[in-house]
Amino acid sequence: MGMDMVITEKDILMATEVKIETLQLIYNVFKKYMIQELRFRSPAISLRAVASACGSNDKYLSMAIRSFSREKTFYRYLTHLRLKYACYLLVKNPNYKIDYIANQCGILSRSTFYRIFKNEYGRVPESVRADFAGKEFTHLKFEEFDDEAFYGK
Q1: Confidence band (pLDDT; 50, 70, 90) for 130?
Q2: Which of helix, strand or coil describes residue 148?
Q3: Which parts of the chain fold into alpha helices (H)?
Q4: What pTM did the predictor assign?
């Protein structure tokens, strides 16, 4: 009485398209959630909490990040945003102390901040600040900020 169901290549392609569209939507919501409200600044942020806030779960959010971000993992993406924000603060507010900047980025340990900053950019925060001293960044918004200029000197 049961009918044999044949899955065609077209069925597989349609399912894949839906999945890719869903992952793209999750990723877009995730980026907006993280950047617009500077959520990455919270030291206690977690994959599960962010996934829930984005209307997803940690498995799908991880898949979305892996599919659409060059950082490939939630924590790598989080670290990149935090360090990008640190560079932004270093050049926009040259009088801020390094400890204050680290805390504003969600990194509570000075030694951890220096270690990951140096691992990411190949230099210490003070050298970034020195390279951009005297340049005008007062109207710069974080969303428009590009940290490519800060890599290795």
Answers
A1: confident
A2: helix
A3: 9-36, 47-53, 58-68, 74-92, 98-104, 110-121, 125-131
A4: 0.81
